[in-house]
Amino acid sequence: MNTDFLKDLNPAQRKAAEAIKGPVLILAGPGSGKTRVITYRIAYLVRTVGINPHRILAVTFTNKAAREMRERLEKLLFGSVKDMTLGTFHAICAGILRKDGEAIGIHPEFVIFDADDQEKLLKQASIDAKVDPKQFPAPKIAAAISQAKSQMVTPEKFKETGKNYFDEIVGRVYERYEKMLSQNNAVDFDDLLLKTVFLFKRKPEILKRYQDRYVHIMVDEFQDTNLVQYELVKLLAGGHRNIAVVGDPDQSIYSWRAADLRNVFNFEKDFPDAQIHYLEQNYRSTAKILETASNIIADNRTRKGIKLWTENEPGEPVCLIEAYNEQEEAQMVVRETERLTGSKKFRLNDIAVMYRTNAQSRALEEAFIRYGVPYKLVAGTRFYERREVKDLIAYFRLIHNPADSVSLMRIINMPPRGLGDKSILEMQSWAKQHDISLFEALEQSSTGVDKPPLAARALASFDIFYKLIRGFIAESKTLPILELFDHVLEKSGYSTYLKAQPDGEERLENIAELRTVAEPFNSLLPGDALSPFLESVSLVSDVDNLDETEGGVTLITLHQAKGLEFPAVFMVGLEEGVLPHFRSFDDPAQMEEERRLCYVGVTRAKRRLYLLRAFRRSLMGGSTVNEPSRFLASIPAHLTTATAAREEPVKPLIPLQKKLYDYAERPAQPTIPSAPIGGGIARTHVKATPPAFKTGDQVKHAVFGDGVVISTLPVKDDTEVVVAFKTAGLKKLLLSFARLEKT
Ligand code: ATP
Ligand code: MG
């Protein structure tokens, strides 16, 4: 038996990888090799035990993680592992439903609706259910429906168990929404999981086929599975019962998406014969970073108490930086980035900046752009959210599935074909009266079977559109996908339309980018390519925008950073109200989740960690003065240093177009020097009414010394004072914090 490659594992990891009989629970902290164990376990199964990859199912949290695991496996196994089922729950379920969904009435050519499509459908469903979308906005209803679906609550059950008026409203919309999804041959993201569970429950013979096939099942990041996902795992593992799940309860950060930490604890109950393995050695981070992380998470109460140690060197202290505001914070990140890469010890790709909310990326992006430092943003599904990208995808979806009325509505007048809203509404209600899809209505109207009562001009426009799509449908069966792509773009008039737009060039570039997404499918037979192309487009999750080949600093939310690692990490916004998020203030369970989120961020770092905060922050319209994050208070002072290495300020590569600050001429040091943060929260709010100051007043500051007031400006609940200090230079201070004295 060939087991040479297992020498890459330590004894505990190796034991876990080789425990291939029966249920196995691997509980271990960050960086201890959980993902590595799964990968090697698969290699062991195939290479040593001789299991056919076809009989293996492995679930990862993101598509990116699946890709990485596949690449790793191909190296370990010297060849392709195409036959293995490896992907996210959503991708795996999409595959099962395409193959077997028909047994519960799901059309094999179903489309997957994303959040945007879903919102449109919900608006329509609300109107139909006589619910005012202004009073009950679609995103709110969408969240309630998603929550219900992840707990496997059907519209009927929802209606029965509703507790209040809002539930009643949601129940009404939910019912209508489900009908509309099926009329559109569509499923939403939650459905992918839910319908697969329904399929398995209603058709035991189909479930049996999958149970027989998958001799070995593995799930990474098990702590962030939801109820439906766990149900799926239990169903699939019901045959051979060789199921290994790995997770870290301290890294459970998706409860807002109905992930349920209790799954980890229930696993032991549901599989009482489960072996439990612990991995305790961390290979990722320096000892100081690991100790920082351990101290932060130690303050949570609900823990399994997983141990973690490392043989790695102590490394540099964790750097705590306080900036005046979010612009200075961003500037410090960029400068330090330049210093790190200038030292040649780090490349841009080695560095990540992590934040709590997407909105925080704006200030960072601005600084990176101003300083000319390349960065890549892993925010939202940005590319796929662009209008032109969505428009073109809507064409392909409609060609693929003419019953998809949401896509049809998106492009019926895009590019503009002279169809007024009124005519479109008429056509819609005519379709509804006849109980046919919108596309069928166009067909009947065009072929003259029956015509809606519309002006001849409108009918002619509908007719042109119908024939256009019909033509594309025919072409989709005969042309390779790239040719079809070009035809759709040209013949629909969309490219001409885009060219005439002020930002047309940029938007055409995005279309070109979408074309490259279709490229790998060009070798497939005409007719076979559209479905996998659309599927790959629907399933791109946020982290999939990350392109390792391109050099640049990664800007990423803490949630998206899960499972990843970077040699250097900057975490910004370590302030009360930001991290922890203010919404968690009066909910102890949520506060624990915020702490776990902080822990996840800290444990992404291999060699360098920077924790930044701003004294004053403008975020999403408001401006606040925030206390340092309570999580900083958990870090012992001996692990940290409070000064950024800014002795040798780096010149920006691109000269600043305008000043970053109105107080820029000051020496490069924190505006307000911080007391040691590790020992406790540094600054306390002074409640006493501060004395009034006016321009020209001579003042004294405890740290900056003597100075003179240059200006005063009343701000919300406070006064901003600019003081020219004799030695420290110009400083902008908030009066209530500054403890200035008149001299
Ligand atoms: P997370 O909880 O963050 O997902 P993890 O437990 O999945 O972490 P891995 O990502 O598998 O940890 O491993 C962390 C790092 O340590 C990786 O770079 C991995 O290659 C390395 N590593 C793990 N085990 C070993 C080992 N036995 N020898 C050398 N390197 C190892
Ligand atoms: Mg992992």
Automatic annotation (TrEMBL):
Positions of ATP binding: A28, G29, P30, G31, S32, G33, K34, T35
Main EC class the enzyme belongs to: isomerase
GO CC annotations on file: cytosol; DNA helicase complex
Keyword ATP-binding: yes
E.C. number: 5.6.2.4
GO process annotations (BP): recombinational repair; response to radiation
UniProt-listed SUPFAM superfamilies: P-loop containing nucleoside triphosphate hydrolases
Domain of life of the native organism: Bacteria
Alphabetized Pfam families for the sequence: PcrA_UvrD_tudor, UvrD-helicase, UvrD_C
InterPro entries in the cross-refs: DExx_box_DNA_helicase_dom_sf, DNA_helicase_UvrD-like_C, DNA_helicase_UvrD/REP, P-loop_NTPase, UvrD-like_ATP-bd
Keyword annotations of the record: ATP-binding, DNA-binding, Helicase, Hydrolase, Isomerase, Nucleotide-binding
Reaction equations catalysed: Couples ATP hydrolysis with the unwinding of duplex DNA by translocating in the 3'-5' direction; ATP + H2O = ADP + phosphate + H(+)
Classification via CDD domains: DEXQc_UvrD, SF1_C_UvrD
UniProt-recorded Gene Ontology molecular function terms: 3'-5' DNA helicase activity; ATP binding; ATP hydrolysis activity; DNA binding
Stated family: Belongs to the helicase family. UvrD subfamily.
Protein name in the entry: DNA 3'-5' helicase
Species of origin: Dehalogenimonas etheniformans
